[in-house]
Design brief:
- The chain is mainly beta.
- Helices cover 0% and strands 58% of the residues.
């Protein structure tokens, strides 16, 4: 099994910044991509950002230009730098790992609250 440990969530004022981190461990066979998704109360889970092992990134429209995803292949970690945060960014953020052999794994989520 693969374990994902997320960190970095919390309360921040509008316009502020936060950095989320995700560390993967366990039976990682063929890691393809890591990413972040979020789910706000009453809404469906949505894409925030993903990054492949080769460095190709994909962002949700609502975060383009404000969030940046990076990864360290050697350490199996992914980070999400979130700038210019808005109240509508408030959600539980989940880390996801895509393994071509072992399948997908999800973290337990970390809460990000943007409020004054």
């Amino acid at each position: 099994q693969v374990q994902l440990v997320e960190s970095g969530g919390g309360l921040v004022q509008p316009g502020g910044s936060l950095r989320l981190s995700c560390a993967a461990s366990g039976n990682i066979i063929s890691l393809y991509a890591m990413g972040w998704y979020r789910q706000a109360p009453g809404k469906q889970r949505e894409l925030v950002a993903t990054i492949t092992r080769g460095g190709t990134t994909n962002y949700g429209d609502s975060v383009k230009g404000r969030f940046t995803i990076t990864r360290d292949n050697a350490k199996n970690t992914a980070s999400l730098q979130m700038n210019s945060l808005k109240p509508e960014d408030t959600a539980v953020y989940y880390c996801k790992l895509e393994d071509l052999v072992a399948g997908d794994a999800w973290g337990q989520g970390t809460l990000v609250t943007v409020s004054s």
